Amino acid sequence: MMSKxxxxxxxxxxxxxYTNDVVKNFTANGLLSIGxxxxxxxxxxxxxxxxxxxxxxxINIGTVTQARGEDMLAIAHTAQSxxxxxxxxxxxxxxxxxxxxYCSKFLKVVRPTVIKGNASEILTLxxxxxxxxxxxxxxxxxxxxxxxKAYDKFHxxxxxxxxxxxxxxxxxxxxxxxxxxxxAKVTGAGCLLGAVIASFLQRDRHPDAECxxxxxxxxxxxxxxxxxxxxxxxxxxFKMHFIDRLSHVSNKDIEQCQQVTEVS
Length: 264
Hints:
alpha/beta; UDP-N-acetylmuramoyl-L-alanine:D-glutamate ligase; 11 helices; globular
């Protein structure tokens, strides 16, 4: 049976990204590297055409404004009406009342296929009293517990990123231990992961847990391979190698290197 990674590279799925200004170029290059076809579109006027053919839509609120928020909602509504999967990334949702209010509104009217964020961000979606300084995640949070509660509340797949990543879908929960600490030194790495997850969906609004685990593992194993190639040079060199490794990471790499544990 063909893996999701092989399917992605064979089909080159159109992955539409309404994402933040800081990461657009990096996101597009990362998607091209892994095998997808990126479209960075912010126009509701063309969302119907894109939603009919796209493999998935990423909504990333990193540089949200009132006007952009309205456009994101309109585009997400259109995607949902066309059965196009949606990955929602509530970047820094706990940093301001505006972001909290916007995400609450979004999730009341849109049901994403996947919600992806760090533990602090996902906790904020559950508890509006949570605060955070930005995109950083608190190390002392129980990501497994938070992911399970978010799954129960929103009835959609949850991916939490951190030192160990967590995937919850269809009542199953997995911890993933691959990755590199250098990902935290590159602006937009987490945003790119949201796009990579979207690229793996390929019109599937009900992906199984294995699909999401494969997407996160491919991303993280490529990062670990890139770290090994930097020879201590630093984040800039890592970023270059990471884009390269996304194009070369293989099913064999995933089978040999994947560190995944299903937890109860």
